[in-house]
Amino acid sequence: MSLLIYAESQDGKFKKVAFELASYAKKVAESMGTTVTAVTVNAGNVSDLANYGVNKVLKVTNDKLGNFNAKAYADVVKQAAQKEGAKVIVLSSTTDSLYLAGLVSVGLDAGFASNVVGLPLSTSPFQVKRNAFSNKAFNITEISTDVKVISLAKNSFGLVELTSSLAEEDFAPSLNDADFAVKVESVEKTTGKVTIADADIVVSGGRGLKGPENWGMLEELATTLGAATACSKPVSDLGWRPHSEHVGQTGKPVATNLYIAIGISGAIQHIAGINSSKVKVVINTDAEAPFFKVADYGIVGDAFDIVPRLTQKLKEFKANNG
């Protein structure tokens, strides 16, 4: 019996969440007296997983799986779990894995707990702590089924290097036409910049920036910090920024180490979607903006004055400190 994770990759390279998942799974496996197996899809060099405690990798290589397909990928994970006799399957909380989770759970007749934020409180019975009510509270969930599926909340555990010996095995799951009933017509990818999913820092803008022509200063700040750029829902609705940058409860949830909100008043849906971020900084001319009530640090002032000065100071700091 082993514990199974699905290690996400893109263009053959593992996403950061794959290593966080491996770090978490290793600690869970130790408490259960078992090992960690990862299943990968069209990943390149898998040896990096050994740095985070993975003992075995099932490598799936299939041109049909070049684009994410929830049904097909769920079948891959299900068959990998059955092959390994895994009783606990750990997924991430990315958009792709959240699509997978329900399908994997049904396929394995397993109980499922989402938004898990820590190591199991107990493995017999199996109990986990989860975010609830848009990250405003926690609940304790017990999974009583023989097979258990959990998804780890992003950035809730971190990376823990723990080198292990790694066995690699080619794995060819049985997939049929029904797995590919949904056809992918096109995929839009951002290139040359940090993605929101992998970012430790996010710089986000709202309607206070007055128009798309003013986004250059946010992009410059983000580049200086090695951050991803994002926006509020009204901004993406207006077409100022692509919908792929919309963060919040109705967009992409964000759980970064640092979230900088510039010209965003702080609608409840936006705050709910970024509330898991560890440090929140707000820059706004309106001292009564709701965002200030949840911010760790706030600057009341004109973003067109503050952001360029902040960027310049950060550049000087980097230049003086290597």
Entry summary:
This protein is an alpha/beta fold and 322 residues long. It is built from 7 helices and 17 strands. Helix 6 (268-274) links the parallel strand 15 and strand 16.
Question: How would you describe the overall organization of this protein?
Answer:
The protein is α/β, with parallel strands linked by helices and 322 residues long. It is 27% helix and 25% strand. The protein has helices spanning 16-32, 70-84, 95-107, 216-225, 233-237, 268-274, 303-321; strands at residues 2-6, 9-10, 13-14, 35-41, 56-60, 88-92, 111-116, 122-123, 126-132, 137-143, 148-152, 167-170, 201-205, 228-231, 258-262, 279-284, 297-300. The chain has a seven-stranded parallel β-sheet, sandwiched between helices. The protein has a five-stranded parallel β-sheet with strand order 14-13-15-16-17. Strand 9 and strand 10 (137-143) form a beta hairpin. The protein is globular, with a radius of gyration of 21 Å.
Count of DSSP-assigned helices? 7
Percentage of residues assigned to helices: 25-40%
Mean pLDDT: 92
> What summary fits the major beta sheet?
7 strands, parallel
Which residue ranges are poorly predicted, with pLDDT under 50 across at least 5 consecutive positions?
none
Radius of gyration: 21 Å
Counted beta strands: 17
Going by helix content, strand content and strand pairing, the class is: alpha/beta
Q: Could you spell the SSE succession in H and E letters?
A: EEEHEEHEHEEEEEEEHEHEHEEH
| Side-by-side strand order of the widest sheet | 7-11-6-1-4-5-12
